[in-house]
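re: ur msg from earlier - yeah i can do the arginine complex, just paste it... oh wait u already did. ok heres what im feeding in:
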Amino acid sequence: NVDKLWGGRFRETTHKLMEEFSESVSYDSALYEQDIRGSMAHARMLAARGVIPQEDAEAICTGLEQVKREIETGELVWKTELEDVHMNIESRLTEIIGEAGKRLHTGRSRNDQVALDFRLYVADRLEGWKKGIAALVSVLVTQAEAHQETILPGCTHYQPAQPVALAHHLLAYATMLMRDEERITDCLKRVRVSPLGAAALAGTTYPIDPERSASELGLPETFANSMDAVSDRDFAVEAVFCASLTMAHLSRMAEEIIIWANPNFGFVKLPDAFSTGSSIMPQKKNPDSAELVRGKTGRVYGSLMTLLTVVKGLPMTYNRDLQEDKEPFFDADRTVVGALGIMAGLVSELTFQAEAMTRALDKGFVNATELADYLVTKGVPFREAHHASGRAVALAESKGCGLEGLSLEELKAIAPELEQDVYDVLDYANCVARRKAPGGTGPESVARQLEAVHGWLKER
Ligand code: ARG
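and the outut:
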């Protein structure tokens, strides 16, 4: 253990089992770029403050450039004995530049170092999530634009309720996703805080300048409390929560696509490129892409639960438990980025089947509310109007037609206030068109929504 970076006080070597159990370099090597960036900023700050000689800082930065190249070309051999990405890089640096490399860790601990690296990493990934969401919103808005006149039965309780424009339906998902993107932007404010300078837990005696290193790293804020800085991972928990909620929205969308693709609905034709077949049933085209998005949502929730549980019982300050923060984030990241890409591809290639939607409208009596509202305009109290419309539904159901299939005599027998013009009111397109109020499914409202989403996309 004498050759370990922390080996001074040890006499015996680490047990092989302990070495394997505690290593993290097999996965935290993913943080190499952030680790090197952070170390360069730290070295320059130390030199600027006269803590280490300028030449040493320069040697450190040149040496780190070389380490980075060695990592990227696959030349550098990661060593389990060196535990993690931080000690692997530092020890390679010292091999290359000697003495000066040993000055890099002045006024710093792996505790603020790892918190910094992870924050930089999470911030980078979150920028990618935002791009993935914007790309999907853009696909949704393109499909919505093409389907402003396509009408389908909107549901409550998954039973036909009222007719809506397909554009309005798709824009509901765009609206959720825009909130997800904004939530990530907000989360980034709390991710992009530099913990560098907190050192092990108590701060440091060196005359450091945390703001200088933070600003070199593009982080607008620095830690307020060194103990908090090294011991909390709330930024990662919050990030994975943002991913979880995004996945919830993608999963809802996936679920609807799966249902719509069932031939009993037939609302949508799946693209071959995002579907799979069956090894036994020749006719099958399965929505596996959407099913996997729905299924993988559980993994991301699992990562969120893992992170919440990792932090829940930790006394101040750094505890090795915190090493368990990275893998759940990596997994959530891979999953949400993959799911966003798949959904954008899938949705952009869906072929919506307007005739199947019209047939479904006919079966669902989704204009029954309009019939009641019509009677209200003729002075019938709403409760009575509701009842009369319900009787018309029962009659139409027994005859196997829609409300508009009933003759005026049949309608008048139910409510004498009904006149010829009721058929206009029952028309599905009119049901939609008459919903002019803000945020509703009417064409004016849909046009306003489309404009707003375009504006939102332009700002991105
Ligand atoms: N690999 C460690 C982690 O991910 C780095 C920090 C180790 N700090 C320590 N005091 N052992 O948390």
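cool cool. The mean pLDDT is 97. ping me if u need the other ligands too
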